Amino acid sequence: MKRDIYGFSYSEVMNMSEANTSPDQADTGKFRVGVVGLGYAGSTHMKAFSKHPKTVLVAIAGKEADRLVSLSAEFNVATTASDWQDLVADPTIDIISIATPNALHHPIAVAALKAGKHVFCEKPLSITAEQAQEMVAAASANNRILEVAFNYRRRQDIGMAHDLVASGKLGRVYHSRVSWKRRAGIPGLKSWFTSADLAGGGAAIDLGPHIVDSLLYMLGEPKVVAVSAVMHGELGRAGYGAMDSAMQMQGSTGLFEVEDLCSALLRLADGSSVALEITWASHAVDDEDISFELLGVDSGLRIFIPRYATEDTITLFGDENGEHYSRRPKITSTGEGHLAVLNEFIEHVDSGNFGLYTGEYALHRTNIIDGLYRSAKSGKEVTIS
User: Fold this and answer.
1) pLDDT tens, residue by residue, 82-101
2) Contact status, residue 35 vs residue 93, Cβ threshold 8 Å
3) Which residue, of 6, 150, 261, 304, has the fewest CB within 10 Å?
4) Predicted TM-score (pTM) of this structure
């Protein structure tokens, strides 16, 4: 999948030009949304908010003038800005949706939450555990909702696995194997994705949040207490593995400064363990393959998703009457993805119970990803708070 450039660099956000504002739309009684970021993730957020019956997309912000014009026309947006601060300062906007390079999640979210707006943020929550804690604290202090777009857990197969674990069908799940492997999936060798400052990391911070979130959801939210990780960036530095070699953006060094492989062992508070492997690129058979294996005392299951497959992705394994069995429950859809996450987010906003949804669960995921980088850098196992 080709990913567009979002058009922001961290050092430039305070120097962007003034907004170009059209007359306000009539008050519809819906929640008014402003989206920051004009790339693939941003346009995905725009589509989802445009479809929701309780939201109206009223403003978008981004630095690419051509994209700003085309997207505002496509979604009939009244207000466009090159500076995200204009959207945060607009008192008529209820929700800020963040779909920018990772390094901008923290400053935009904290400013929006302090301005009294709810925040819907693309993964990862932030690039460090400290920043994530500040975002959650800002949501709590200002009685506002902070939600992250973890859409993979809304897949039908992952939902089925969650229900099987919760029912006790697998017994105690003592070990899991989780991976997302790409043969050539570095999203632009010269893009913000490979800039240490803008992305905060490589494959682990890009793909890791989705598979870590999905696994913890399936297992019933156990706590990870320690991680031991190794990381490599050999293929990217050698010029291999680009998903789109043409991507470039202002503010990027054009260098490969991050990892393209992460391998780790996670220890959980209940004594169980997780073997995790993430690759953006590898000279191997894997080509955009996602896998979850849950090993339970009574039975096990595997979800294998080759190239985002939507059918027949889950297999159950066990013993029955002294015989091994493997069964494949029928899976026919992926679920609603971003739209399902957004539906839940809007339900929370509409409920008024803001203090219940301040991003605490997303904070634990960020602590885990942060731990992977700390462990790889130190060469030692590190504990997770």
Assistant:
1) 999 999 999 999 999 999 99
2) no
3) 304
4) 0.89
